[in-house]
Each structure stands twice: as structure tokens, then as C-alpha cells.
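Project outcomes to date are best conveyed with an example. Our students and postdoctoral researchers have been running inverse folding experiments weekly, and each run begins with a structure described purely in C-alpha cells. The record below, which covers 131 residues, was selected by the lab manager from last quarter's runs and is presented without edits.
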């Protein structure tokens, strides 16, 4: 058994697509219309691993989704993490692209992390494994 798709709940799929592709650098794997309301099965992958785990930009239309997301953000809790080779370099690259960080790079023993706002109602943690 292995993870094939994981989701991040987003307030607007088109806005999320722009952020996750233009800023974070993911590429579209699937973009399939699934409803008359315009919702899509919209998955992205790392260009470094095009057959790897897909990130589903899942509409947050369920009544429980928005309060749950707001509670996590209000408490400063990132729900999703992405592994990077160099958190400081990614922080600088993304900051230069206008990405807002709520936590600058911080070394925490075996990891270095930074937390960004994805503009779609989520905090995302970047993680670097320290050797």
C-alpha cells in the first residue's frame, strides 16, 4: 500500500492552481471537470517526481471545511507539509515572488521549517531534514 493522492482543501481552485503552480512550482497532472458548478478533479505533482504522489486541490465546499481550516490557521497550525532540500533558499525564492510567510525558517533539531500562507485558507509548512 502507498499514498497515491492527498488533498488540500482550497477556497478557490483557480486561485489555488495559480499559487501552487506559479509560486510553488508544481505541475498539473489531472484537470477533469466533475460538476456543473465548475469543480474539477485537479491534481498537481512535483516536476521532480511526475509519477509520484498527487496533490488534489479539493474544493472546501463542505460545511465543516471552512470552520476547521479557520481554526487551524487561527492557531497557527499548518495542515500540509512539503519537503524541500533547503528551506532558507525556498523561503527567499518564495518571498521574492510575494509569498507571505507566518514563520520564517527555524531550526528545530533534526528539521528546519518555515510556514507560508497559500492564499486559499491554509498554512503550509516547508520542511528540510537536517543531516
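After processing, the design step wrote out the following sequence:
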Amino acid at each position: 500500500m502507498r499514498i497515491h493522492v492527498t488533498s488540500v482543501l482550497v477556497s478557490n481552485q483557480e486561485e489555488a492552481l495559480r499559487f501552487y503552480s506559479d509560486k510553488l512550482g508544481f505541475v498539473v497532472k489531472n484537470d477533469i471537470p466533475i460538476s456543473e458548478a465548475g469543480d474539477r478533479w485537479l491534481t498537481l505533482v512535483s516536476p521532480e517526481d511526475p509519477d509520484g504522489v498527487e496533490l488534489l486541490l479539493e474544493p472546501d465546499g463542505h460545511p465543516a471545511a471552512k470552520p476547521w481550516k479557520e481554526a487551524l490557521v487561527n492557531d497557527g497550525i499548518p495542515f500540509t507539509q512539503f519537503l524541500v532540500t533547503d528551506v532558507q533558499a525556498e523561503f527567499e525564492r518564495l518571498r521574492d515572488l510575494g509569498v507571505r510567510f507566518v514563520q520564517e525558517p527555524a531550526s528545530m533539531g533534526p528539521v528546519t521549517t518555515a510556514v507560508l500562507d497559500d492564499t486559499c485558507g491554509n498554512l503550509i509548512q516547508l520542511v528540510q531534514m537536517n543531516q
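The beta strands are 5-10, 27-33, 40-45, 54-59, 80-83, 101-108, 111-117, 123-129. The longest helix spans residues 13-23. The training component of this project remains on track.
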